[in-house]
């Protein structure tokens, strides 16, 4: 804190200035620090909330890396490069005039967000999907995508954002549904010019091609979950959601669909007889126990019957195989 002068000291200082004993330049005055605040660019989010947003979308970057690597059968690396809050006008001004804008409808927020994918990334994806090496083979100089390119990008990014709810499930039930593709940012109006939005910039590498993907979250989408984005709340939610790995595996296995086939019997006939088959002909089959197959492997034997008016099989015998617990 600066020293406060007494009235006697002030009088002595003024006298020295008037007599020339002291020059005004010799007197140092500590200026009060002033922080500039732009009311047109209101900062709505704290650093803590932005860090929570970054942690959430780091998981999304990993999910996208795994999914695109499998779909494109190529080296894919996606990492977060920047998380910041800007005005919607600044976001639009920062992206190319011709680019790929994937618009998603977000429920239950009743708002929309957009994923901007730079052309070098978009066409590297298209090149791989069409059997190429992932090079940038085209551009958007003509101002539009072909119908085939639009459909391919729609399928890739709509399925990518089916995983978006996974990264939010411990905080909020969010569902992002692909809605449209736009190539001109000027035709896209998701928020007012001076509204604050959160941008998450992903540095994306596909094969030898490197570019950026930018996710824009308008305030309308983020506002309902702001109270849950504090570090303490975020970690407490993660701890509550932490379940043993064995239980998690069992939950995932419960949703797996396995084909089960009850085979009544088999018959072998010459091709000449097969060609001359007519309506009313009877083919004899081997009789005996019905074989119940699970994923093409015979695991049970049983007898045919009816259950509540439907065909059914009564299991009489379980066929054990080495290494099975059945």
UniProtKB/TrEMBL annotation:
Q: Keywords in UniProt for this one?
A: Bacterial flagellum, Cell membrane, Cell projection, Chemotaxis, Cilium, Flagellar rotation, Flagellum, Membrane
Q: Does the keyword Membrane apply?
A: yes
Instruction: Please indicate if the UniProt record lists Secreted as a keyword.
Output: no
Q: Which GO terms describe its molecular function?
A: cytoskeletal motor activity
Q: Which GO CC terms are listed, alphabetically? A: bacterial-type flagellum basal body; plasma membrane
Give the UniProt subcellular location, in the record's own words: Bacterial flagellum basal body; Cell membrane
CDD domains, per this entry?
FliM
Please classify the protein's predominant subcellular localization into one broad category: other
Tell me what topology the record assigns in the membrane. Answer: Peripheral membrane protein
Q: Where is the Flagellar motor switch protein FliN-like C-terminal domain?
A: 252-319
GO biological process terms held by the UniProt record: bacterial-type flagellum-dependent swarming motility; positive chemotaxis
Record InterPro entries: CheC-like_sf, Flag_FliM, FliN-like_C, SpoA-like_sf
Q: Which superkingdom, per the lineage?
A: Bacteria
What SUPFAM superfamilies is this protein classified in? CheC-like, Surface presentation of antigens (SPOA)
Among the Pfam families in the record, one is FliMN_C
Q: Give the UniProt family note.
A: Belongs to the FliM family.
Q: What is this protein called?
A: Flagellar motor switch protein FliM
- Species of the source: Neobacillus massiliamazoniensis
């Amino acid at each position: 804190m600066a020293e406060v002068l007494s009235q006697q000291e002030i009088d002595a200082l003024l006298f020295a200035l008037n007599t020339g004993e002291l020059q005004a330049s010799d007197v140092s005055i500590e200026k009060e620090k002033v922080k500039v605040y732009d009311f047109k660019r209101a900062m709505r989010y704290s650093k803590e909330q932005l860090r929570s947003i970054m942690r959430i979308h780091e998981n999304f970057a990993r999910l996208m890396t795994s999914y695109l690597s499998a779909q494109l059968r190529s080296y894919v690396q996606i990492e977060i490069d920047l998380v910041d809050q800007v005005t919607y006008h600044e976001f639009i001004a920062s992206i190319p005039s011709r680019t790929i804008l994937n618009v998603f409808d977000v429920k239950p927020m009743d708002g929309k967000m957009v994923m901007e994918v730079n052309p070098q990334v978009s066409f590297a994806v298209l090149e791989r999907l069409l059997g190429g090496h992932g090079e940038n083979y085209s551009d958007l100089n003509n101002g539009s995508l072909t119908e085939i390119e639009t459909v391919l990008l729609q399928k890739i990014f709509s399925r990518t954002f089916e995983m978006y709810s996974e990264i939010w499930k411990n905080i909020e039930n969010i569902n992002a549904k692909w809605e449209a593709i736009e190539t001109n940012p000027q035709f896209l109006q998701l928020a007012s010019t001076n509204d604050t939005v959160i941008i998450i910039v992903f540095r994306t590498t596909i094969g030898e091609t490197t570019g950026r993907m930018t996710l824009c979250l308008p305030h309308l989408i983020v506002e309902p979950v702001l109270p849950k984005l504090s570090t303490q709340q975020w970690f407490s939610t993660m701890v509550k959601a932490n379940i043993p790995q064995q239980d998690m595996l069992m939950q995932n296995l419960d949703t797996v669909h396995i084909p089960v086939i009850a085979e009544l019997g088999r018959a072998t006939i010459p091709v000449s007889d097969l060609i001359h088959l007519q309506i009313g002909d009877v083919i004899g089959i081997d009789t005996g126990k019905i074989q119940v197959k699970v994923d093409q492997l015979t695991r049970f034997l049983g007898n045919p019957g009816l259950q509540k008016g439907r065909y059914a099989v009564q299991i009489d015998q379980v066929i054990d195989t080495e290494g099975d617990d059945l």
